């Protein structure tokens, strides 16, 4: 099922590796959830087909392969409706992987590559002023940073409006951040996080990032910079293989360099190895933490903080996962089903903090 043949291994920070299951939602035994999520993938297929064709230049060959993608993946979804256990298990991660498999089978290596590049460029132009503004916060800087993560995570290219807003030049990160809900958030462990933050610095953080563009550049990088500034060694980890608009390691590495060119503190942190980038081994917009790259597993052994960011990584696959070190799960809810599950609302924020055990 995986697109990579890389050797993968469990993240050593899992508190119960044998009992770990990367699925918050079981689609075999919950027909209502199954119908909901298959419809989400069906709806998304329309925009995916357009992105895929555009990513390969949009000519007749690309259009034809995009149509083939539409037919092929729709057939997979129809099969799952009729035969939920066709693949032995059924969960959101599996359907994501089937989608990436269909893209590759139709010759699309990275359907969102142009969009990701454009988003990264746009976000970088805003980075200096976002950092300068955050630096003016003193006592409430941590909350401002977390709100920034939420604002960035709203921009997810399941949502086409993101691209439209970028193209129209109408994206205002600060405006979006101002629109993030006031506390209490849907899941709100911020006070516990802030208490821990005040008690001293972490030694080493493993930070799983999500989408290219504002999400990683304006949301997560400032948080990583603040951790590094406090003396934490920060390992920023991104997908090895492309999946939707998630940033890949091959995109993250040059992006960090470009960000460092814009900010002396980021440059210093990268120059001294306090911020490094590492491939996660992952090939999906969700993540299975019992199958990460060997390099990441080695780096994680002495970490005392894990950060999972984004709906796929923090909620859909790992909301209930427990870790031996402190774990911070940050995301904005962009699906009604998850909003109902968490007793919240669409675009509600999740800040879950669990002490290590
Ligand atoms: Mg994503």
Q: Please state the overall shape, judged from the principal axes of the Cα atoms.
A: globular
Query: What portion of the residues fall into strands of 2 or more residues?
Result: 5-15%
Structural class: alpha/beta
How many E strands?
9
Describe the strand arrangement of the main beta sheet, using strand numbers: 2-9-8-7-3-4-5
Quaternary status of these chains?
Answer: single chain
User: What is the share of helical residues?
Assistant: 40-55%
Q: Which spans of ≥5 residues are poorly predicted at pLDDT below 50?
A: 159-163
Distance, first to last CA: 32 Å
Overall mean pLDDT: 93
Specify the biggest β-sheet: 7 strands, mixed
Structure description:
The chain has 357 residues and is α/β, with parallel strands linked by helices. 51% of the residues lie in helices and 11% in strands. It has 14 helices and nine strands. It has a seven-stranded mixed β-sheet, with helices on both faces. α9 links the parallel β3 and β4. α2 runs antiparallel to α3 and α5 crosses α7. The longest helix is centred in the N-terminal third of the chain and has 25 residues. The chain is globular, with a radius of gyration of 19 Å. About 1% of the residues have low confidence. Magnesium ion binds next to loops. The site of magnesium ion has 8 residues, from loops.
Descriptive terms for the model:
two-stranded antiparallel ribbon, single chain, 357 residues, 11% strand, 14 helices, alpha/beta, binds magnesium ion, seven-stranded mixed sheet
């Amino acid at each position: 099922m995986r697109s990579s043949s890389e050797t993968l291994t469990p993240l050593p920070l899992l508190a119960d590796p044998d009992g770990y299951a990367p699925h918050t939602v079981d689609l075999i035994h919950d027909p209502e959830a199954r119908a909901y999520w298959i419809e989400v993938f069906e709806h998304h297929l329309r925009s995916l087909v357009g992105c895929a064709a555009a990513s390969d230049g949009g000519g007749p060959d690309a259009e034809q392969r995009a149509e083939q993608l539409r037919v092929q993946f729709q057939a997979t979804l129809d099969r799952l409706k009729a035969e939920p256990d066709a693949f032995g298990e059924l969960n959101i991660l599996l359907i994501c992987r089937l989608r990436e498999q269909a893209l590759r089978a139709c010759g699309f290596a990275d359907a969102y590559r142009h969009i990701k590049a454009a988003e990264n460029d746009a976000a970088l132009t805003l980075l200096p002023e976002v950092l300068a503004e955050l630096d003016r916060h003193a006592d409430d800087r941590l909350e401002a940073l977390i709100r920034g993560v939420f604002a960035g995570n709203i921009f997810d290219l399941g949502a086409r409006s993101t691209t439209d807003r970028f193209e129209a030049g109408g994206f205002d990160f600060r405006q979006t951040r101002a629109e993030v809900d006031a506390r209490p958030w849907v899941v709100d462990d911020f006070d516990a996080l802030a208490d821990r933050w005040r008690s001293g610095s972490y030694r080493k953080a493993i930070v799983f990032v999500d989408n290219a563009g504002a999400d990683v550049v304006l949301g997560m990088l400032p948080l990583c910079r603040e951790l590094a500034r406090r003396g934490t060694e920060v390992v920023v980890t991104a997908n090895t293989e492309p999946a939707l608009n998630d940033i890949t390691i091959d995109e993250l590495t040059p992006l960090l360099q470009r960000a460092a060119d814009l900010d002396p503190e980021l440059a210093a942190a990268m120059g001294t190895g306090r911020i490094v980038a590492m491939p996660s081994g992952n090939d999906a917009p969700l993540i299975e933490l019992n199958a990460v790259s060997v390099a990441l597993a080695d780096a994680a052994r002495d970490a005392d903080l894990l950060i999972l960011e984004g709906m796929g990584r923090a909620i859909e696959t790992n909301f209930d996962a427990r870790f031996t070190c402190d774990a911070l799960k940050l995301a904005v809810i962009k699906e009604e089903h998850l909003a109902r599950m968490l007793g919240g609302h669409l675009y509600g924020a999740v800040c879950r903090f669990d002490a290590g055990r």
